[in-house]
UniProtKB/TrEMBL annotation, chains A, B:
Gene3D superfamilies the UniProt entry points to: GntR ligand-binding domain-like (1.20.120.530), Winged helix-like DNA-binding domain superfamily/Winged helix DNA-binding domain (1.10.10.10)
Keyword Disulfide bond listed: no
Keyword Transcription regulation among UniProt keywords: yes
SMART domains named in the record: FCD, HTH_GNTR
UniProt name for this protein: GntR family transcriptional regulator
Classification via InterPro entries: AsnC-type_HTH_dom, GntR_C, TF_FadR/GntR_C, Tscrpt_reg_HTH_GntR, WH-like_DNA-bd_sf, WH_DNA-bd_sf
Keywords associated with the record: DNA-binding, Transcription, Transcription regulation
HTH gntR-type domain residues: 2-69
Domain of life per record: Bacteria
DNA sequence: GGAGGGAAGATTGCATACAACAGTCCTGGA
DNA sequence: TCCAGGACTGTTGTATGCAATCTTCCCTCC
C-alpha cells in the first residue's frame, strides 16, 4: 500500500495536468483532504512537492494555487529546453544505449503514431512526455531529469499538440524517429541538431518565441 | 517573526553548507526538532525542501541523510553549469542591466578580492555564490535561479576555493571582473565566453572533468 | 459617497498523539 | 557454528486539535 502522501501527490498532479484543476484555481488543504479521504498532513506535503515541481505556487499563510502560464513563461521554458534537451540527446548518442532501450524508444514512436492516427491527443502528449523523459534518462546525467521536470510539465498543461496542424504533427513524429536513428548511430552532433530542431519547432508552434500572452484572470 | 519552517530550513541549510552536518550523516526528525526547539512538523517540512534542493536525500520510512558528492556528481554538475550559466551571462549582457545592478556586481568583486587578501575562504565562497546568483537573476529568466540552486550548492559544500592555488584564485577574480565588463558592454558573446571559461577553470581545479572520486563510507 | 478601521470567519501553521513500518537483536533449530 | 524466525525498539507516516494569520465584510467617520 503506497503512502498517503504519494497518492495525494499523484492524484493532484493528474488533476492539474488533465486540466480538471483549472489554472489559477485555489487548492484548499481541508477541501482536498476531504475529497481524497485523507487528513491535511499528507495533502499539505503533496502540495509542497507540487510547488517544488513548479505545478502550483504556495504562498505563506495564503495556500496553494495552480500556476498560470504566460507567454513569457513559455518562452523561458522553451529556451531552457532547447538548451538542455539537445545536450541530453548528444550525451545519449555518445553513450550508445543498448538495444532494449532503443527498442523501447522505437516502441513509443510507433505508439505515438498510432495515437495520432486515432486522434487521441491526450495520449500523444503523454507518450511524448515519456519519450523525452526516456531520452533524458539515456543521457546518463542523473540531475537532468529533476531539473527538467518543472519545464516538462508546461507543454502538457498548455496542450501543445492541440495547436498542431497535420503537417506540424507529422514533422514532430519524424523528428522522434530521426532522433532515435541518430542515437542508435552514436552521432552526438546529429542527435543534438535533431532535438534542437524538434524543440524550436514546438516553440514556434506555440508562438512561444513571439511573446504571445495566453494568461487570463481568475 | 518568521515561520518555524523557514528557520528550520535556513538553519539546516547553513549546517550542511558549513560542514557542521557532515556528508552522509543522518538527520533524525525528533533529534533536530529538539535541537532547534521546534516540533517535528516544521522540521519535516524543511527536510523535504532540502530534499527538493538536492542537499539531502529522503528515503521513505528511512529518514533523511546529507547527500554525498562523488566525482561523477561533480562532473555532472559542472557540465550543467557550463551549459546554463554562460547562457545566463549572455542574456544578462543582452538585457544590459542598469547601473545600480552593475555597481552591486562590482562591489561584490571588490569584496571578494578583499576576502581573498584576508584569506577568508568561507567569505569568498559565500560572495562567489551571491555573485553568480546575481548574474543569473540579471538574465531575466525567472526559472533559472530555481533550476540552478541544486547545482550551485555543490561547490559550496565541496569547498572549491580551498583547493585553489594563488594563480587559480587570481584568475577566478579576473574572470569576475571581465564578466562584469562584458555585461556592461552589452556583448553577449563575450560574456558567454568568459563565463564558460570561468566554469571550466573551476571544474579543472576540482578535477571534476577527470572523474575523481571523493566519496567515502558513513 | 468613499476611505479607513475593526471584528468575524475561514484558512494555514504548528504541536502532539497514535499508527505503521524498518532495522536490530535475540532465540531456537539444524 | 550458522541460518532462520520473530519480537522489540526506534523512527517515520498520519491524524487531529489549537494557535496565528489572512481575508472579507460591515460599520463608522470624513
Amino acid at each position: 500500500m503506497p503512502r498517503a502522501t504519494d497518492t495525494a501527490y499523484e492524484t493532484l498532479r493528474r488533476m492539474i495536468l488533465s486540466g480538471e484543476a483549472a489554472a489559477g484555481s485555489r487548492l484548499g488543504e481541508a477541501e482536498l483532504a476531504e475529497t481524497l479521504g485523507l487528513s491535511r498532513t499528507p495533502v499539505r506535503e503533496a502540495l509542497q512537492r507540487l510547488g517544488a515541481d513548479g505545478l502550483v505556487e504556495v504562498l505563506p499563510h495564503r495556500g496553494a494555487r495552480v500556476v498560470q502560464w504566460t507567454g513569457a513563461d513559455l518562452e523561458e521554458i522553451f529556451e531552457l529546453r532547447s538548451l538542455l534537451e539537445p545536450y541530453a540527446a548528444a550525451r545519449a548518442a555518445r553513450l550508445r544505449p543498448d538495444e532494449p532501450v532503443l527498442a523501447e524508444l522505437r516502441g513509443m514512436c510507433a505508439a505515438m503514431e498510432r495515437a495520432v492516427a486515432d486522434g487521441d491527443l491526450a495520449r500523444v502528449a503523454q507518450l511524448n512526455a515519456r519519450f523525452h523523459a526516456a531520452v533524458i534518462d539515456a543521457s546518463g546525467n542523473r540531475r537532468l531529469p529533476g531539473m527538467l521536470t518543472s519545464v516538462m510539465h508546461a507543454p502538457l498543461i498548455v496542450g501543445t499538440f492541440r495547436r498542431y496542424g497535420a503537417d506540424a504533427m507529422a514533422r514532430s513524429m519524424n523528428h522522434h524517429r530521426e532522433l532515435v536513428a541518430a542515437i542508435a548511430a552514436g552521432d552526438p552532433a546529429w542527435a543534438e541538431s535533431v532535438m534542437r530542431a524538434h524543440i524550436r519547432a514546438a516553440a514556434a508552434g506555440l508562438g512561444a518565441d513571439q511573446g504571445n500572452q495566453t494568461d487570463e484572470e481568475t
